[in-house]
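ok so dumb question maybe but i'm new to this and my supervisor (M.) told me to 'just get the structure for acylglycerol lipase' and walked off. so i did the thing. is this what she meant?? sequence i used:
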Amino acid sequence: MQETAPSNDKISSKIMVLPVVIGVPVAAVVLCAIGVPVGLYVIKPDLLVKLFMRYGMRSAGLKIKTIEGNDITFCYAERGIPNPDVPSLLFIHGFTASKDMWSTIIKKMPQNLHTIVVDLPGHGDTLTKVDEDMTFKGQVKRVHEFAELIGLTNGKYHVIGQSMGGAISGLYAATYPEEVGLVTMICPAMETPEMSDFTHHIASTGNVVLLPETVEDIAEMMTFIMHKPIKVPKQILKGALGLRQPKMDYYRKLFLALVEDRGALNESMGSITVPSQVIWGKHDKLIHVSGAEVLHKGLPSCHRLDLIPECGHSTNMERPGMVTKLLLKFRELEKNYDPIDIDNNANGSTVLNETSAEKVPILEAWLAEKKASL
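this is what came out, is it supposed to look like this??
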């Protein structure tokens, strides 16, 4: 097990002040530098947040594009051109986030790597005309439809996902092993031996902090998605909330579908035969880090397991430089693979046979109650 030492790009980097789940990298210090009127900050904070999302994408060298499917318009961004000798990168975002969440990492990646980020159905600027199959496998099919549309399936590529996107990435690699050259799962959504703070919170309050309805709710959400939450100006939180509100009905339905399907990655991990990497923040409060050991033991080709100290669920916000470094190490390793000697139980805390006689019913009861109220 590779435990990575802290680096200088920790959360103390004040320039990024909104988390991965919001999917909005906001650079408050850049306000004056790019000439955004202060009135916009006061009157239209949601537009301000949107502008900074675009600023983050542009600073990472990503060009925003759209492409039409049969009943969907995918919005995505691309940097570079395909190289048959070097796997392209396809990044898949998390629940309620968007393609923009990856700009903090992509801006640190070598410019010569062909990179794609996509908005999943119902997220960001991807528009869908139908009721989506919200299961993980349904989303895998949508991502593959997108990959075919842009010609990515003509060569091997590296699929990278975080949280919900991490589970989608793993299932994608299991479903299309002839296309995927590498897969990286970052804090993926799955069943874990130990309950997370997030699951405990649902069990005790019935409240889902990932579905905020007020500015105060978003502030509370940040305490769950980051190891050491930073203080975000209230007006910026208000702007982020404004962007989310039109999609809240979709997000609620999606969350219920994901809870119901939460064991999908566990059930399919034995079929993920491509070279695999697992990255996890050691202090993840949303999805317990004990899942890392489950994947390490269950993946046929887990070539790297990297736990990041002093980091929570939002790895791309808290430790973007470290995530980039780990991705590049994995890609370099695969050029001449030599199995790493990994201690299977380095922290001595993961007990696989206690997967949850009491834990699963907690979520099952909550899920049944919510579905009955729809």
